[in-house]
Specification:
about 270 residues; alpha/beta; Rossmann fold; about 45% helix; globular
Length: about 270
């Protein structure tokens, strides 16, 4: 129970990575405030957790007043906030900077970058008052590597990595730790929805699409959300108290792959032969 006694606020917790983080934190002893835009889905998740382990606050992270309500709800669990996980995000793609609707561009950045800023702005003073805390920003491999047709998403996640390190620098003296986790492909509802249009093009099903997109990843698969949750539990715990400003890449080795080498391998060419 390495998170025993801790209180955590998790945004985007209704499904996917966020939901798994909530489950893992509770299993490790924490009480959690789970947030998102879908009240019913949040209530269902909370109902699946032990009684008293979770509070629900539906809202939109792009609105500062909603972020304030989220933090206040978390504080209502035990009068403190030890951990903040900024996980809420959207990932519309398929457009270059020439084609993208400026409204979509702004919405992605407001959700993926301004949203975490809102939560940190409100939460950090309470964390300082409580003697410190851990902030975990869920960025993406897309914040370190470019994805085709996803300029807003990649820009927002790169910005979140820089914001993470800025907060680590500015608030380290106040015992606030801030780290970024960069998942690679992870089997979530959001990614399935994003990749499902490719099934018809590739003449396969969604499982086949996932096999294709992970075919050059050294571990040859996508992550399970629970594997990202485990890293977050470590960052939330006292096992990582000297860790801040770090960027943890959890991608099955995808970032180490050279695209030219991967293309040759995919074409059946063996190196050194």
């Amino acid at each position: 129970m390495k998170l025993d006694g801790k209180v955590a606020l998790i945004t985007g917790a209704a499904t996917g990575i966020g939901a798994e983080i909530a489950r893992r934190f509770v299993a490790d002893g924490a009480r959690v405030c789970i947030t998102g835009r879908r009240q019913g889905v949040l209530d269902k998740l909370a109902g699946s957790l032990p009684a008293g382990a979770a509070a629900v606050c539906a809202g939109d992270v792009t609105k500062l007043e909603d972020a304030t309500r989220m933090v206040e709800t978390a504080l209502g669990l035990a009068g403190k906030l030890d951990v903040l996980v900024n996980n809420a995000a959207i990932d519309p793609g398929g457009k270059t900077v020439v084609d993208i609707d400026p409204e979509i561009w702004h919405h992605v950045l407001e959700t993926n970058l301004t949203g975490p800023m809102h939560l940190m702005k409100v939460a950090i003073p309470h964390m300082i008052a409580g003697g410190g805390g851990s902030i975990i920003n869920i960025a993406s491999l897309g914040g370190l590597r470019c994805l085709p047709g996803m300029p807003a998403y990649c820009a927002s996640k790169a910005g979140l990595i820089a914001l993470t390190q800025q907060v680590a620098l500015d608030f380290g003296p106040a015992k606030i730790r801030c780290n970024a986790v960069c998942p690679g492909g992870t089997r979530t509802e959001m990614l399935e929805k994003s990749l499902s249009p490719l099934a018809e093009v590739l003449k396969t099903d969604v499982d086949g699409v996932f096999r294709v997109v992970s075919s050059m990843v050294p571990l040859r698969r996508t992550a399970n959300p629970s594997e990202i949750a485990g890293i977050c539990s470590y960052l939330a715990s006292d096992d990582s108290t000297f860790m801040t400003g770090a960027v943890l890449v959890v991608d099955g080795g995808a970032a180490i792959v050279d695209v030219a080498g991967a293309a040759l391998t995919n074409a059946g060419v063996k190196w050194g032969v």
